[in-house]
Design goal:
10-stranded antiparallel beta sheet, 15-stranded mixed beta sheet, 25 strands, elongated, 3 helices, mainly beta
Length: 411
C-alpha cells in the first residue's frame, strides 16, 4: 500500500482503523513519483561479529555519529549509523512487517513481526515499531538493528524523533567494520547534532565473540561529549579480560571529526648520566589532506637543546615517503649534531618501482649520544641505498647503489 504523496510504502497484512475510507496522511518524508516494487520481507537473523585491531583511545567512536563522510588521516573520524538520517533524507520510507496497523484518530502507525524499515541506504529492523506521525516519535523494540553501509547498531530499544534527530538507545552496541570499533552502553542519548551522553559505556577494538570477554577494553560510568570540542569521562577503568587493572576518576580529551593541529602529550624524563632533566614537546601540524608534520622541542638540561622534524606525505596510492631530521646544539661538545633520515617508495608502473632509504649523520656519535632507542645507540654503521626494479615477462632488471657510513672509525 502506498499513498502517492506520502513517501511511505507499507507491505504486509494491513489493518486501517479509521472512521471512513480516505488516503493515509503524509509522513515527514515525501517523494513524488511512480510506484516502487515492494521488497520481499525476510526475518532478520542475528550475526556474530569477531573483529580484530588495537584500541587507540577512550570512546573516540562518538565523532562517527555525525552525518559527514569519513575523512582519512591520522585522526580521522569513525563512521557509525546516523540516527538522524530518517528525517534528513528525501527518499521514501518502506515498511514491511507481518502485521501493519494505522489508527487514524491518534495518527499512529504500528508494525509487528519481522519489521523492516528502509530508506535509501538505511535499514532498521525490529520486532515491534511504532511511528507517531503527529510528533515524529519512532519507537522500536525487540532485537533492534540499524544498518548503515557496513556499520551496525544493535539495541533492546530505540526511541527516535525523526523531526529533531534526537534519540535514545537502550542497551546498545555499535560495530564499525572499517575501523573495527565495538561500543556498548546501557543508555546512549543524542541531545543535538553535536552533544551526546552515554551511561555505563565501554569500547574496544579487540576480538569480540559471543559469550566471551574481549582481550581488553575501556569502561566509563558517564561520558558527555561535544563534537569538534572535548569529551568528559567520569569513572574510567581499563579492563583486561573483564578484570580492572587501572582507574582514572576523571578524564578530558579532544573529540575531533577531522585532523587538527595542536600540541601532543609531552615526554618527560631524567637521566643520571649526562643528559639531566629531559623534556620533549611535540606539535602536530595538519598541513593538508595528504601530508602532515610533527615538530618537537628537545631539551636536555645537562646537554643542550634542539629540534626534531617529522614530515609525512602520500602523493598517490603508489607514492609515499617520510622525512625525519634532528638538529641539536650540544653544549658539552660545543658543536651541532645532525641526523637526517629519508624514505620514499614509488611505483611508476606495474613493472617498474623505486625505493630509497637515506641515513646521514654529521658525526659518528650522534645516535649513540642522543637516540633513545637501544639498537640505534649500538649501531656500528648506517647505510643509505637506492633500489630500482624492473620486471619483464622472462627477465627482471635490478639496480642497487649503497653508501655506508662507519660509526666506529676514529676519523
Amino acid at each position: 500500500m502506498r499513498h502517492p504523496a506520502a513517501g511511505i510504502h507499507m507491505w504486509g497484512p494491513v489493518r486501517l482503523m479509521r472512521e471512513k475510507s480516505s488516503d493515509l496522511p503524509a509522513l515527514p518524508c515525501r517523494q513524488a513519483g511512480g510506484r516502487q516494487v515492494p521488497p520481499t520481507p525476510r526475518p532478520v537473523t542475528g550475526r556474530a561479529r569477531c573483529l580484530a585491531s588495537l584500541l587507540l583511545f577512550l570512546i573516540i567512536f562518538l565523532p562517527g555519529i555525525s552525518t559527514s563522510q569519513d575523512q582519512p588521516g591520522p585522526a580521522g573520524r569513525i563512521p557509525v549509523p546516523d540516527l538522524g538520517k530518517l528525517s534528513k533524507s528525501k527518499e521514501p520510507i518502506n515498511i514491511t512487517a507481518d502485521q501493519l496497523e494505522y489508527r487514524q484518530k491518534e495518527d499512529v502507525y504500528t508494525a509487528d513481526g519481522h519489521v523492516v524499515v528502509t530508506q535509501g541506504g538505511l535499514r532498521l529492523t525490529g520486532d515491534h515499531v511504532v511511528l507517531e506521525n503527529a510528533t515524529g516519535l519512532l519507537t522500536a523494540d525487540g532485537h533492534v538493528e540499524l544498518f548503515q553501509g557496513e556499520d551496525l547498531l544493535k539495541a533492546d530499544r530505540m526511541e527516535l524523533n525523526v523531526n529533531t534527530s534526537q534519540g535514545v538507545v537502550y542497551k546498545g552496541r555499535i560495530d564499525t567494520r572499517k575501523d573495527n570499533y565495538h561500543i556498548e552502553g546501557e543508555r546512549m542519548e543524542r541531545l543535538s547534532e553535536e552533544v551526546y551522553l552515554i551511561d555505563q559505556g565501554s569500547m574496544t577494538t579487540c576480538d569480540i565473540c559471543e559469550g566471551s570477554a574481549p582481550a581488553w577494553r575501556f569502561r566509563a560510568k558517564k561520558l558527555r561529549l561535544r563534537l569538534d570540542h572535548y569529551a568528559v569521562a567520569k569513572g574510567v577503568a581499563l579492563e583486561i579480560k573483564d578484570i580492572p587493572v587501572a582507574y582514572l576518576p576523571y578524564l578530558v580529551f579532544p573529540v575531533k571529526t577531522t585532523r587538527q593541529s595542536g600540541f601532543l602529550m609531552p615526554r618527560i624524563g631524567y637521566s643520571t648520566k649526562e643528559e639531566g632533566f629531559k623534556y620533549l614537546q611535540p606539535f602536530y601540524w595538519a598541513i593538508g589532506y595528504s601530508h602532515d608534520a610533527t615538530i618537537s622541542l628537545d631539551y636536555r638540561s645537562a646537554k643542550g637543546i634542539g629540534g626534531i622534524l617529522e614530515y609525512r606525505y602520500v602523493l598517490s596510492r603508489a607514492s609515499q615517503g617520510r622525512l625525519e631530521s634532528l638538529f641539536f646544539h650540544d653544549r658539552d661538545e660545543k658543536k651541532e649534531r645532525i641526523d637526517l633520515r629519508y624514505r620514499h617508495t614509488q611505483q611508476f608502473t606495474e613493472r617498474l618501482d623505486l625505493k630509497t632509504d637515506v641515513n646521514l649523520l654529521n658525526s659518528r656519535d650522534v645516535r649513540r649520544d642522543l637516540s633513545s632507542i637501544t639498537v640505534e645507540r649500538a649501531q656500528s654503521s648506517v647505510e643509505s641505498n637506492l633500489f630500482i626494479h624492473h620486471r619483464a615477462d622472462i627477465h627482471s632488471l635490478l639496480f642497487l647503489t649503497r653508501y655506508s657510513q662507519d660509526l666506529l672509525a676514529s676519523s
